[in-house]
Structures are given as structure tokens and as C-alpha cells.
Amino acid sequence: MENTSKDYSHIKGWGIDADPKNDPTYPMRKRGNETHAGYTWERPPLQPENMEVLHSNERPNVTAVFGTSMPPKGLSGMIRRYAFQYGEGSFGHWLPLLVADRVNVVEGIVEDLKSGHVPNIFAERGMKAQWKYDRKGLLQGIAVAAAVTTAAVLLLNRRSED
Amino acid sequence: MLAMTYRGPQRVRIENKPMPEILHPQDAIVRVTRSCICGSDLHLYNGNVPDTRVGETFGHEFIGVVEEIGTDVHNLKVGDQVIVPFNIACGKCTFCKQELYGNCHEANPQATAVGGIFGYSHIAGGYNGGQAEYVRVPYADVGPMVIPSGMHPDDAVLLTDVVPTGYQAAEMGGIQKGDTVVVFGAGPVGIMAAKSAWLFGAGRVIVFDQEEYRLDFVRKFAQCEAYNFRSIEDPVVFMKKTTDSLGADVCIDAVGAEAAGSKLQTITGRKTLLQAGSATALQWAVNSVKKGGVVSIVGVYGPTLNLVPLGNIVNKGLTIRANQASVKRLLPKMIEHVQNGVFSPRELITHHIPLEEISDAYRIFSDKLDNCIKPVLIPPSARV
């Protein structure tokens, strides 16, 4: 395959941002000597910390602002607190967080049921759209899930009979 | 107010949640008029990003109207229509001073490797996102920019992430005039990366993907060559053969953690989460680039270990550049390009979907149904 497109006039804007100074260190080249001195910047005012905020053990403090969407709670919260004892490069940090996420999903279902809300899994998984645009895929998925469930039930029954 | 909430892998719904409040003097509350679902939201949606908590609201691409400002906000006023960059940045720390707004050190207590991002799990600060009617915007004097008069809102909303991220992918490639540039992934960011490569003077732009409709789209939108890697035995061998056995000058990974194309990567990265996502596109990029070439990564990977071909990176003397886009730094140039007709980002938008149908919107985008390239969500308060 040859490169035949030597005339670039059909490309609007060809080469307008070409910059021979776009070296790989940009924009790090803007770094000044003060960056070697650590936390030298004037920190913004600190957001009041009136809830539990976990922070990486690779930094000394909570940042000046933080999100407040879902503070840690319950069993998943305990696992998350454990995870934050480990550094960001460690499996000890990330694997417990993944486990906590799965535990949190079960907690969410329990919370729903306790508040009288039965989650509509069909709607939450967007199956209306899948029914409209990918009926075959949806039916295949349901068939596979049904087969796996049936096999698991049969296997468990056989073991209990033994 | 209505807001999308995460309930578990591939389960989201719309809920009534409390209105956001000013929690810091530099906060603003923005009423959302447009938000998007991003390809990187799908990593959260699929449960692949650690510390994604049930009840969180996603959405880091949004525009809206300023409804309320904190006592220390001076550059915005109530009623301003604003583009809100996806990164939350203080503007004061050593990284913001270097215009590395995606690496702010005062926006995310939970991790040091990544900055604060709206609606992107607690690993990115635990902020609620813009797939809602209202959202809290910290450091409102730093990030948000008033939408220029006459700019179409569909253009504006894509300047919050997709356009600058694709542009920065090309910029980080250090493209020199006449270079051959390869982009892995023809999602919205890959499409914009291919389009942007020409602006830096690329001589040839090649895109790989597995969806025919996306390949057709990128050929037209970015005037590039585009190939389906499913119909090619080995994309790396193909690249070598089409570049005199040398490889491309610049390779861009615009896919990240959920790449298809390698069974081993799929099992270890996508199914069992034993590494931080499937690094197939990155493998192909490293192996397809010329010795001394540049690999530019904007695809999102998780934080855990990856099966990266480090030996090849060292032996080939590669320069790897990667980052979250510094949207604020790039916004003025992006606006100029849109106004001059160099970009028409809204051509990427294939679906306008009411916020209330968020579950279906995620399914359509996630499963690439109905030839979806980019869905935009419209909250009910923006439809009157």
C-alpha cells in the first residue's frame, strides 16, 4: 500500500497546529525550581471535613476539596478502610476495593428491599433497548443464563441426594 | 432532582436525589442542559473500576447554566452558560501551574495517581457527576468557561472531554509533517484523534476498529484509512507491511481497558480483572510503532498491574506519553477550531436521549446498538 495522499488540500486545517517545538516534555518544561520544594503552593481554603473521607496513604492529608457522594458505610465501608492502609501500587489496596464494590452491590439490594423498593433488574439493565435493537442477543443471553442455572441446580440436587 | 445512579455492574437507574449544595467557597451549582455518556463511563458501568460505590452518579461530560455561586467565585455569575471540563483543578498547585490540570493535587484525596474527575468513582475523588439535573462544580473560577455566543450546545458539550482528549492524543504524539499516524479505536475519542492528527501535519492517518459502522464513520469524518482488525490476521504485521517494514511514526491507544482482539487479555483483563483491563490496543501500539517512535495513550486503564510489554518499550527506545487531557489548557484552541469550521464535533452525536431513559442509553452505547457513536442525555428541565 503506497502513501498516495501527498496533496493535503482536501483536509481542512492541515498542518495548522504543526509545532516543531512540541517536544515530548511539553508541558513539563514549564516546571520551575520551586517544584522541588514540596507543598509550596498556597492551598485553597479547605472544605469542612464533616464526613468520613478516606485518603491515599501516599499523601499526608485530604485535598482542599473532595466529593461527598457516598461515604464508606457497612461491611463494604470496613473493607474500604482496610484497603486504604495500603499504597496505590499494591494489590492490598485494589483487590479489597474490588471486593468491597461487590459487597456494596448486595448491600444496595438489601437497602432497596428494606425501603420497600423491589429493583427492576430488567429496566436497570436497559433490556428494553436491547429488546428493540438486539432481540437475538437478548434471547441468547437469557437462554445461556437459564441453561447455566438449570445445570447448577441439577448438580446441587444430585450432590444432596448422594 | 433526577439523577442517574449506579446500582451494580450493568445496572443503573434514574432516581430522585437531594439537590447539590455549596460546600466550599469556590463551588458553583450548575443546572445541566446536556450531558454525555463517555466510553470511559463504560468501565465504571461494567464494574471494572475499583471503588465505584452503589448510589454514585456518573457523568463527566456536561454543560449547563450557573444557578448559584460560592462567596469566593469571581469569574462566573448566575445565569452564565458554561462548558465544564471533566477535570476538577485548583489552579494553584504545582501541577496546575504546569497546565497539567488533569493532575491537580488538590482535588482527589483518594488517589495521587489521578486527579479529580466528575462522576468517576471514588478513585477520582468521589464527586457526583453531570448525568443529573444539577451538579456541584468545585473550583468554579478555574475550570468552567462561558460558552461563546452562537456556539451550538451539542458542539459545546463535546468540548468537555472528547474533542480535547482526541486532540491531546495527537499532540502527545509529537507528530511531525508527513508522519504516519495509527489510531487504535474508532470511538469518539479515536475519531477525534484521527481528525486532529491532520492538524499537526500527519501525512497518513490509519484507524483500526472492529465495528464496520464506526469504520465507515471515521473514514468520512476524519478522511483517513480505516481497517477492521477482525479481517486482518495480525494488525502488527499488517502495519509493518504497509510501512516498508518499519512501523508507524506515532501510534495512539484510544481504547484502554476494554479492548477486544486478544483472548488472553480478555480473560485476564476484562473477565477476571487480574490486570487493569485488557491492554490489547497498547500491545499493538507498542509493537506497531517505528523504533524511536512515539506511543500516545489516552485509553483509560485501571490502577492494578498490567501485562505491558516493557521489554519492547526499553529495547525500542520508545517515548511513551500519556495523560488525561488538560481540557482547560486546550479549550481556547478547541473553541477557535470549532468556530473556524475545522472541527464540527456535533457530527459525532448520533443519539439524543431523555435523562429518564438512562438505563436504555447505557445499553445502547455499551452494546453499540443502533449504530451509536455518541449519545447525549437531555434532562427534563432542559427540554422545556
Number of H/I helices of chain A: 5
Mean pLDDT of chain B: 92
Anisotropy-based shape of chain B? globular
**Helix/strand order of chain B:** EEEHEEEHEEEHHEHEHEHEHHEHEHEHE
Percent strand of chain A: under 5%
Instruction: Give the H and E element order of chain A.
Output: HHHHH
Could you say which structural class the secondary elements and strand pairing of chain A correspond to? mainly alpha
Low-confidence stretches of chain B: none
Number of helices of chain B: 12
Distance between the termini of chain A: 66 Å
Count interface residues per chain for the largest interface.
Answer: A-B, 81 and 89 residues
Q: How much helix, percentage-wise, in residues of chain A?
A: 40-55%
Kindly state the percentage of residues in helix of chain B: 25-40%
| Count of beta strands of chain B | 17
Termini separation of chain B comes to 15 Å
Strand content of chain B: 15-25%
Counting DSSP E segments of at least 2 residues, the number of strands of chain A comes to 0
Structural class of chain B: alpha/beta
Oligomer: heterodimer
* Sheet having the most strands of chain A: none
